[in-house]
Amino acid sequence: MPLVVTLATCLLAGGAAFVLCHQRALALEAERRCTLHSRPFHHGMLGAILVIPPGLVFMLVWLMAGNALVNPMVLDALPAGAVPADPALRDLFLNDVHNIAHDAVASSTSPVKEQAAALYAELMARGRTIVWLLTLTCALLMGALAVRKVAPGWRARDHVERGFRYLLIGCSVVAIATTVGIVLSLLQQSLDFFARVSPIEFLFGLHWSPQTALRADQVGSSGAFGAVPLFTGTLLISVIAMAVAVPVGLMSAIYMTQYASRRVRQVAKPVLEILAGVPTVVYGFFAILVVAPWVREAGEALGLTVSSQSALAAGAVMGIMIIPFMSSLSDDAITAVPKSLSDGSLALGATKAETIVQVLIPAALPGIVGAFLLAISRAIGETMIVAMAAGLAANLTANPLEAVTTVTVQIVSLLTGDQEFDSAKTLSAFALGLVLFTVTLALNVVALRVVRKYRETYE
Amino acid sequence: MASASDRPASRHRDGGRAQWHSPAMTRRIRRRYLGDRLFRAAGLAALTAAGLFLLLLVGNIAWQARTGFFQTELRLEVAIPADVAAGETPGSPGFGAAVDAYPWRSVALSALRERFGADSRGDLASLRGLISRGGAAVALRAAVRDDPTLIGRRATLWLPASEPADQWAKDRDAATALSERQVGWLESFAAAGDLKTHFNGRFFATGNSRDPALAGIGGAVIGSFLTLLVTLAVAFPIGVFTAIYLEEFAPQNRITDFIEVNINNLAAVPSIVFGLLGLQVFLNTFGMPRSAPVVGGLTLALMTLPTIIISGRAALKAVPNSIRDAALGLGASRTQVVLHHVLPAAMPGMLTGTIIGMAQALGETAPLLMIGMVAFIVEVPASFTEAATVLPVQIYMWAELPEAAYRAKTAAGISVLLIFLISMNALAVYLRNRFETK
């Protein structure tokens, strides 16, 4: 019984419970000519609330635990010796079994795996049928209970509203669960990685080449996981991006808030909004198509050797991407400064430019610094532009004309294409992700705190 | 430190009065005004630069895309062999299978050979270079399936040209990979009116292909649609409910504060980290299928959630308290106040935020690479659990290919994506304006 059928059964049962309870409440009202404590609608809703959630819980439990339950049963049923003893290889074996069972491409097949896949599919199907039966039984019982409970004095509304409150709380918890999920999944895989490669080597090593050799006796078979070239590459590209985005973004915000007429604003605002809404993959295409060749030609005209995947091209395009972000945040910071400050300065005879540079910007500085920090965090976490326009070679260099690679590019290249399960190469992506998450989180926390403090001073 | 006598105000003083018209003061004032004008010009330059970047970006993409929507075809008289589906009645499954399995490319090739009377081995290779590798077979197959009476007869059909021939037809002056001989043949096609470049409708219907003449965005558009459907179904209710809880019910305490800070931080977490989360939780822990729209949709939902919550809270805040007080005064419970009065008033604002979040999700690429939606997929996906790709990922994959034809396809795909995004944003702006005038 596919889970979709179970879900449909559960929802249909809920609908039926609603209708039955609703009808019964209406009938009671008409029959006894009395007023019920709760509206018929509430009686109906309570019926649905009693019926639907248990089924959802069954399905969720099955989704989370089904594989873990069935896998050992499959492995136990196979003849001894057919299953590899090494945990990593066993995971690979199981993965192939799952793929065969799902009609997907498996890395290799064998009669044992075919047999295991058939068994796996059968056990999974049986498990789904059990979940369906449980859901159906529970729905019938709870539905009967709900219908019997309908009475003039039954405080259905209070229960429905409490249920609604729990639903709201449950939804709010999703945000926390997401954060916890991010931290746990990154930590778990990173710890696995750090069990193989020491954190010191990872954080301070100067050589990055994650390609592990196929055989253990080859030279450099363990790969090198010194991430410093990635950090410097990320930093280099981010610095270039900020060198483009900060002046342009800040100056356009100043012009928009201080000088522009209404008509200019009407044109400029949508332009910046569209620029902000362009997907990063489009910027990446623009970088390889237009900016990179242009940078190379310009460099060659000056007699410089420029890599076709230069950090300069990727950084410049990333800067363009960040302009609207920087501009709208600085715009907020500048407009939050009370008008009395600039009025006072103007009244003393300062020109508009002097007022802006000497009064407005110092007053808005915390907000602008916050914007700057958020923009850096954007630049560090940006993936597609660098994945397309920056290279894969981990060069330790500060020359913007050379190709560098970044943390995000490496995560993409490590996790796309063929993956080896549980290898240091795959795990290193999670360690890089952890570094990325930690750094951007720190930047965000500081930036949000700065911005909030600053808002409080003027409120 | 400047002493008091150095200060400009005192330098132009005479008997306690400022000499506003002294030459030094005039110069100074002129300099200050010049500084003001320069500053203003710098601001305008920055804004213009941003506008120019956008113009350059969109202009370039549009210029590249101009050929991507078109495909060149050649008209050929083809002799359809009599043995295509020997012994099968038209319409039966066996007939379809036999037609599909027939080596159509050689049929197209012999038609070309007949036309130009070329026989040597080198000539054959050159002729083969004129028609699309897979496209000719697809066109012939479709023609015979549509009209089985063609079998054993001669038919005049339009067949897609190969990628270099297509490029030549679109821009005859550009450098071409074709030999002079091939160009001569193509010119004879053009002279006879047997070469046309027409709007490529197939581009919107098919999935990816190794043959640029057959590659389309249909599969990716459907994949994007399925993915966004999941995202919307998950993120919208959860986002709205969270916003309601935080704004209307939550007590002011540490936990609520923590949730708030948490949501603000989640909004700034790089999207690729959500991809890692999706990979580890949905694929590795829950064992959900790789590359499937349902996983992509869930991952994007977690990413979009903060946007929806933050805009939802702003919309709820904008509802005046008098509405809540009036409803409470009439005896409504707090749940009724929220569901019957506050939420309908805040809905347009919430929808605006949701559409903006959906537009972000539509343009997002990086997290989907992590969960394997980057696979080469020919079929148009039909369910939430089938392997699929999405429009931005399709663009990413094509952008990495060297052929000029794929560059035009990439730009064409980007144009379609941008049209979707701009219409979504326009809808959001329309909703916001309607809401504000109310």
Please explain how this structure is put together.
The complex is a heterodimer of chains A (459) and B (438). Chain A is mainly α. Chain A has two domains: 3-154, no CATH class; 224-458, MetI-like (MetI-like fold). Chain A has 15 helices and two strands. Chain A has helices spanning 3-32, 40-77, 87-101, 111-149, 156-196, 199-204, 228-259, 262-277, 280-301, 311-335, 339-347, 352-381, 384-389, 407-415, 424-458, and strands at residues 208-209, 224-225. Chain A has a two-stranded antiparallel ribbon. The two termini of chain A are 60 Å apart. The mean pLDDT of chain A is 87. Residues 1-6 of chain B have low confidence and may be disordered. In chain B, a hairpin with a 2-residue loop joins strand 1 (13-14) and strand 2. In chain B, helix 2 (23-65) crosses helix 17. Chain B is mainly alpha-helical and 438 residues long. Chain B has two domains: 70-199, no CATH class; 218-437, MetI-like fold (Orthogonal Bundle). Chain B has helices at residues 8-11, 23-65, 93-101, 104-116, 121-128, 135-146, 163-170, 180-191, 218-249, 254-266, 271-285, 293-317, 321-329, 334-363, 366-370, 391-399, 404-437, and strands at 13-14, 17-18, 70-79, 154-160, 195-199. Chain B is built from 17 helices and five strands. At the A-B interface, helix 2, helix 5, helix 7, helix 8 and helix 9 of A face helix 2, helix 9, helix 10, helix 11 and helix 12 of B.
